[in-house]
Design goal:
Layout lengths: L19 H4 L23 H4 L13 E5 L2 E4 H11 L11 H27 L6 H12 L5 H12 L3 H23 L6 H10 L5 E2 L2 E9 L7 H20 L3 H11 L10 E6 L5 H8 L10 E3 L2 E11 L2 E2 L2 H30 L3 E3 L1
Length: 357
């Protein structure tokens, strides 16, 4: 028996989206090279002749990874879900090594959970109206850019069978029915519950003195000598003249992207909103004496020099209920949804045989 569904990544957050399972159904279309070595039909003409396609990091062999009351789940199912959890795998040519095991475990728990829910729907003899199924099939096909792309998916993933696609859509809709009844409908949070939570946890909504600002920093080399320290100070003073001449967030930000040496230079030097307790005292002192739009002088922190532009300043305060109501309601509902989902997972596992292979 595998571990409980609540012990890994928060991978169930996406369960609430419409037809969440089907959204990932076509993910492998261009990600996985089939055993026949086929390349996607939208590859550039002649690409296969110019060079052999690079080995895909997303290989599958339809090897069983789990069994739920006799139903086998494969590495193809697992990879689809891993790509749903970490879609950036496409850009990074694979999953980050430090996180791959956790992503895999989260995906494994998800596909097992979905199969458990589907089998529960069958036990309840739930059905999908023909018109709903037809609409869902139309929506599913819209994720393909062309008819040819859908046909390729049909051949590679569904054995050329539209009936199999329809059954997968029906399966997804049945899963949704159970989740709506047992989890989603029961996770609704009332206004009174939100208000009560706010009043009982007022400390959570206290905000420290906070600043929104941009920086331009001149950093010293490691173990600088006297001449290098002087050169850094000279450089900072030169940059300060340019910074003082800027008249807007945009101008200061473009200068930061051009000359700043800190990590924020790639984002217009923007630090967004930062609490007073997270900032060096030299920077806090400078910001407290400034108005929005002001540019500081050079602020020395050890042997580095920083110039800041104040964008906004918020005194320490407690956020009002009106400010936090919407996001707090969403957070509380999300937490309740996950608690109910975990409870359902435990309930269904208790009466099923789940094997991780």
């Amino acid at each position: 028996m595998s571990g409980e569904g609540g012990n890994s990544l928060p991978f169930f957050e996406g369960m609430r989206g419409k037809m969440r399972y089907l959204v990932v159904f076509a993910l492998l279309l261009v990600e996985v090279t089939s055993s026949t070595g086929q390349v996607p039909s939208h590859a550039p003409t002649g690409a296969a002749k110019q060079a052999a396609p690079a080995a895909s990091p997303f290989q599958v062999s339809d090897k069983p990874v789990a069994r739920v009351d006799g139903t086998v789940l494969t590495d193809r199912d697992l990879l689809r879900e891993m790509l749903q959890i970490f879609p950036y795998a496409r850009q990074h040519n694979g999953f980050p090594k430090a996180e791959e095991a956790a992503i895999r475990q989260g995906a494994l728990q998800m596909i097992i959970f979905e199969e458990l829910v589907y089998q529960e729907a069958q036990r309840r003899r739930l059905t999908v109206p023909a018109e709903q199924l037809k609409r869902a099939e139309i929506e599913f096909k819209k994720q393909f850019a062309t008819a040819e792309e859908y046909q390729q998916f049909l051949e590679q993933e569904m054995g050329g069978s539209d009936t199999r696609v329809r059954e997968k859509i029906r399966r997804s809709l049945l899963i949704e029915q159970v989740l709506k009844t047992e989890v989603e409908n029961r996770s609704v949070i009332s206004e009174a519950e939100v208000k009560a939570y706010y009043e009982e946890n007022s400390a959570k909504f206290r905000m420290p003195e906070t600043f929104a600002f941009q920086t331009i920093s001149i950093l010293p080399p490691q173990n600088p000598n006297t001449d290098q320290v002087k050169e850094g100070q000279k450089r900072a003073n030169e940059v300060l003249k340019e910074a003082k001449a800027t008249k807007s967030y945009q101008e200061f930000g473009l200068l930061a992207e051009k000359v700043s040496e800190d990590d924020f230079h790639v984002n217009m030097g923007d630090h967004k909103e930062v609490g007073k307790d997270k900032l060096p005292p030299q920077v806090v002192s400078a910001l407290q004496a400034m108005k929005p739009g002001d540019v500081s002088g050079t602020i020395q922190i050890d042997q580095a020099y920083t110039i800041v532009r104040m964008n906004e300043h918020w005194p320490a305060r407690t956020r009002s209920f009106a400010e936090v109501r919407k996001e707090l309601a969403a957070e509380l509902q999300k937490n309740k949804y996950e608690q109910l989902r975990i409870a359902l997972d435990k309930q269904l596992r208790a009466k099923a045989k789940v094997e991780v292979l």
